C-alpha cells in the first residue's frame, strides 16, 4: 500500500506533520472516551448514581474525536485533490512534450485511462494512505501504553499478536499485489482494445466482421472479469483472516480478565477499560488492511504516472525560424531512427523547397507514421542532420518548428464542448463569421443546420456523436482557421472512412493545402496524382522519391506498389 515516493510529493511532509498531531490528540480522546465510559458503567454496576461529570467527559471525547476525523478528512481531501491535479497536469504536459510518439507507444486507451481514471485512483490512494498509515503509526502505540498501565499482561498479549497479524497481512498482501499489478496491465490492454474497436467499427462493418469481433470483445471482458474475481478472493481471504485473529486476541484477553475478576485479582473499572480499548488498538490496522486492496490500483497508477512523467524529453534545438515561405528550403541528410525494441528507419536524404504537397505512400507497417513523427519533431533521430531555411540541426524537435505545424492524425480528438469551441480550439479569438466560413469550406453546413443550438451545441463523448468524416472535417476547419501555420502533417487521415466520404473530403482538403508545405501519409493511391512530390516507403526504407510522372516512368518500387495494391485505376 505504501509507496515511499508518495512522501516525496510537494507538501507531503507538511500534511504528515499535521496528521501526526491530530492522531496524537485522537489517541488521547480514544483513551479518555474508553476510561470515562468504564467509570460510568462501573459506578452504575456498583449502585452509585450516574456520574454527570464523567458522562460529560465521555461526550466531549466522542464529539472531539468526530471533529478530528472531520478535520483530517477535510485536510486530506484538499491535499489529495490538489496533488492529483498537479500530477494530471504534469502528465498532460509530458504527453504534449513527447507528442504522438508517447500515445502510440502506450496506446490511446491506456493513455486516456491513465489521465482520467488512473489519476482519480491516485487521488484516493493518496488520501487513504496518508490517513491510514499515520493513524496506524501513532494511535496503537499510545493505546498500548494506556493498556500497559491498566494491565501489563493484556498489553503483552496484544503486543505479541500485532506482529503476527502484520506478518500474515504481508503474505496475503504480496499475493494480492502481484495479481493486482498484472490485472492493472490487463486493464490497460482492455482499454486499448476498446478504443481500437471503436475506431475500427466502420471498417469491421464494411467487411462484415463486426459480429465476430464483438464475440472477441466479450471473451476479453469475461477473461478480465474472472481475473478480477481471483484478486477479490485473495482480498476477501485477507480480510477474513485479519478479523479472525483480532477477534481471537480480544477473546483471549476477555477470558483472562474474566478469571481475574472471579478470583478478585482485578476490579471492574480496568477490566472494562481494557475490553473497550482492545478493539480500538486493532482498529487502525484493520482499516489499513481493508483499504489495502482498494488502493492497489491507485498505487499501480501512481507508479505508472511517475514512470511516464520521468521519461526524458527528447533532445531539442533552439533555432530561431521565421514563418515558412515559398522560398524556404527543407533538407534532410542521412536521417535515421531506431526504436528501442522494434523497427528502424534506414538513413534517408530529402530536399524540398517552398510550398509543396508531399505524399508518403506505402503498405501498412512500412514506416509512414514513423517518418511523419520524425519530420514533425516528435521523434529524435539516431543519426543524420536537417537544414531548415539555411539553419542546421541534429533534430526537428525545434519549438519554433512546432509552432509552424498543424498535425492531423487518423482520428482527431473531439472535445466535449460546443462546436464553436472545438473548431476555434487553436484560434480562440476568431469571430463566428470566420468559424462559419471554415465550416462551409470543409462541408459541415449540413451538420451545423442539424444542430439544435447551432455553434453552441455541445458535441463529443456523451453528447452529440459525430461520424469519422465529420470529426476529420472539424480537424480541417481548425487548420483552415489557423492560417499562420504553413506546414501540415497528415497521418492517414482517411484510413477509417468509406470511399464515398473520403472522395468528398478529398475535394475539400486539396484547396486547403495550397500555399502550405504538406506531408500526407496514406496507403490510398488515388491521392498520389495530386501530390507534387512522392516518398515511397517499404519496411522502414525510403526506396523511391520523385514526382508522380518520374516514378511512373521508372517502373520501379512505386509501380510495383501500384500493382500490389491493384490500384491502376485508382491513381488516374
Note down, in words, how this protein is organized.
- The longest helix has 54 residues, at 210-263.
- The protein starts with 11 loop residues before the first helix and ends in a 7-residue tail after the last helix.
- 62% of the residues lie in helices and 11% in strands.
- It is α/β, with parallel strands linked by helices and 572 residues long.
- Helix 4 packs antiparallel against helix 8.
- The model is unreliable at 568-572 (pLDDT under 50).
- It is built from 18 helices and twelve strands.
Write the topology of this structure.
Blueprint: H1 12-45, H2 52-98, H3 100-106, H4 108-150, H5 152-199, H6 201-206, H7 210-263, H8 268-292, H9 296-309, E1 329-338, E2 344-353, E3 357-361, H10 368-376, E4 383-388, E5 391-393, H11 399-402, E6 405-408, E7 417-418, H12 419-423, H13 432-441, H14 445-450, E8 458-459, H15 468-481, E9 487-491, H16 499-512, E10 517-522, E11 533-538, E12 541-546, H17 548-554, H18 557-565
Parallel strand pairs: 3-10, 3-11, 6-9, 9-10
Antiparallel strand pairs: 1-2, 1-4, 4-5, 7-8, 11-12
Please tag this protein with its features.
single chain, 572 residues, alpha/beta, 6-stranded mixed beta sheet, 4-stranded antiparallel beta sheet, 18 helices, 62% helix, 11% strand, disordered C terminus
Helical/strand content category: alpha/beta
The largest pleated sheet is described as: 6 strands, mixed
- Assign an overall shape: elongated
Helix-strand topology string? HHHHHHHHHEEEHEEHEEHHHEHEHEEEHH
Query: Between the first and last Cα atoms, what is the distance in angstroms?
Result: 63 Å
Please, how many helices?
Answer: 18
Cα-atom radius of gyration: 33 Å
Strand content: 5-15%
Into which percent range does the helicity of residues fall? 55-70%
Average pLDDT, rounded to a whole number, is: 82
The beta-strand count equals 12
Instruction: Flag low-confidence runs.
Output: 568-572
Strand order of the largest sheet: 6-9-10-3-11-12
Amino acid at each position: 500500500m505504501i509507496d515511499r515516493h508518495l512522501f516525496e510529493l510537494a507538501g507531503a511532509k507538511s500534511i504528515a506533520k499535521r496528521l501526526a498531531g491530530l492522531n496524537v490528540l485522537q489517541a488521547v480522546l480514544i483513551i479518555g472516551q474508553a476510561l470515562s465510559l468504564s467509570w460510568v458503567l462501573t459506578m452504575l454496576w456498583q449502585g452509585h448514581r450516574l456520574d454527570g461529570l464523567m458522562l460529560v467527559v465521555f461526550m466531549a471525547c466522542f464529539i472531539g474525536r468526530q471533529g478530528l476525523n472531520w478535520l483530517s478528512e477535510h485536510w486530506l481531501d484538499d491535499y489529495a485533490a490538489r496533488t492529483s491535479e498537479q500530477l494530471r497536469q504534469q502528465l498532460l504536459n509530458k504527453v504534449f512534450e513527447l507528442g504522438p510518439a508517447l500515445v502510440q507507444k502506450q496506446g490511446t486507451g491506456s493513455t486516456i485511462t491513465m489521465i482520467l481514471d488512473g489519476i482519480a485512483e491516485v487521488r484516493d490512494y493518496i488520501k487513504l494512505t496518508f490517513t491510514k498509515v499515520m493513524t496506524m503509526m501513532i494511535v496503537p502505540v499510545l493505546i498500548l501504553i494506556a493498556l500497559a498501565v491498566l494491565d501489563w499482561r493484556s498489553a503483552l498479549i496484544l503486543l505479541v499478536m500485532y506482529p503476527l497479524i502484520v506478518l500474515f497481512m504481508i503474505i496475503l498482501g504480496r499475493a494480492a499485489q502481484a495479481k493486482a499489478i498484472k490485472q492493472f496491465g490487463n486493464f490497460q490492454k482492455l482499454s486499448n482494445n476498446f478504443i481500437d474497436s471503436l475506431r475500427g467499427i466502420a471498417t469491421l462493418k464494411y467487411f462484415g466482421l463486426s459480429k465476430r469481433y464483438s464475440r472477441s470483445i466479450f471473451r476479453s471482458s469475461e477473461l478480465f472479469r474472472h481475473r478480477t474475481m481471483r484478486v477479490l478472493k485473495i482480498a476477501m481471504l485477507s480480510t477474513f483472516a485479519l478479523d479472525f485473529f483480532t477477534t481471537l486476541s480480544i477473546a483471549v484477553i476477555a477470558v483472562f480478565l474474566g478469571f481475574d475478576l472471579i478470583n478478585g485479582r482485578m476490579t471492574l473499572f480496568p477490566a472494562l477499560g481494557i475490553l473497550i480499548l482492545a478493539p480500538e488498538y486493532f482498529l487502525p490496522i484493520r482499516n489499513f488492511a481493508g483499504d489495502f486492496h482498494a488502493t492497489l490500483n491507485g498505487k499501480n497508477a501512481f507508479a505508472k504516472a511517475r514512470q511516464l512523467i520521468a521519461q526524458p524529453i527528447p533532445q531539442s534545438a533552439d533555432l530561431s525560424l521565421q514563418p515558412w515561405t515559398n522560398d524556404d528550403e527543407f533538407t534532410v541528410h542521412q536521417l535515421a531512427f531506431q526504436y528501442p525494441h522494434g523497427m528502424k528507419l534506414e538513413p534517408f536524404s530529402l530536399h524540398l523547397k517552398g510550398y509543396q504537397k508531399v505524399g508518403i505512400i506505402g503498405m501498412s507497417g512500412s514506416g509512414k507514421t514513423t517518418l511523419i513523427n520524425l519530420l514533425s519533431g516528435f521523434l529524435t533521430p539516431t543519426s543524420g542532420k536537417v537544414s531548415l531555411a539555411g539553419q542546421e540541426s541534429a533534430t526537428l524537435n525545434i519549438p519554433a518548428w512546432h509552432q509552424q505545424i498543424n498535425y492531423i492524425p487518423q482520428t482527431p480528438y473531439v472535445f466535449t464542448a460546443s462546436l464553436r469551441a472545438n473548431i476555434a480550439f487553436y484560434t480562440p479569438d476568431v469571430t463566428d463569421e470566420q468559424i462559419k466560413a471554415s465550416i462551409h469550406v470543409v462541408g459541415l453546413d449540413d451538420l451545423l443546420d442539424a444542430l439544435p443550438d447551432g455553434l453552441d451545441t455541445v458535441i463529443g463523448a456523451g453528447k452529440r456523436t459525430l461520424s469519422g468524416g465529420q470529426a476529420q472535417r472539424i480537424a480541417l476547419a481548425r487548420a483552415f482557421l489557423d492560417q499562420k501555420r504553413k506546414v501540415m502533417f497528415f497521418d492517414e487521415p482517411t484510413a477509417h472512412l468509406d470511399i464515398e466520404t473520403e472522395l468528398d473530403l478529398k475535394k475539400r482538403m486539396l484547396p486547403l493545402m495550397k500555399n502550405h508545405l504538406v506531408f500526407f501519409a496514406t496507403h490510398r493511391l488515388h491521392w498520389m496524382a495530386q501530390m507534387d512530390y512522392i516518398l515511397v516507403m517499404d519496411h522502414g526504407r525510403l526506396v523511391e522519391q520523385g514526382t508522380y510522372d518520374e516514378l511512373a516512368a521508372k517502373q520501379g518500387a512505386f509501380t510495383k506498389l501500384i500493382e500490389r495494391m491493384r490500384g491502376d485505376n485508382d491513381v488516374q
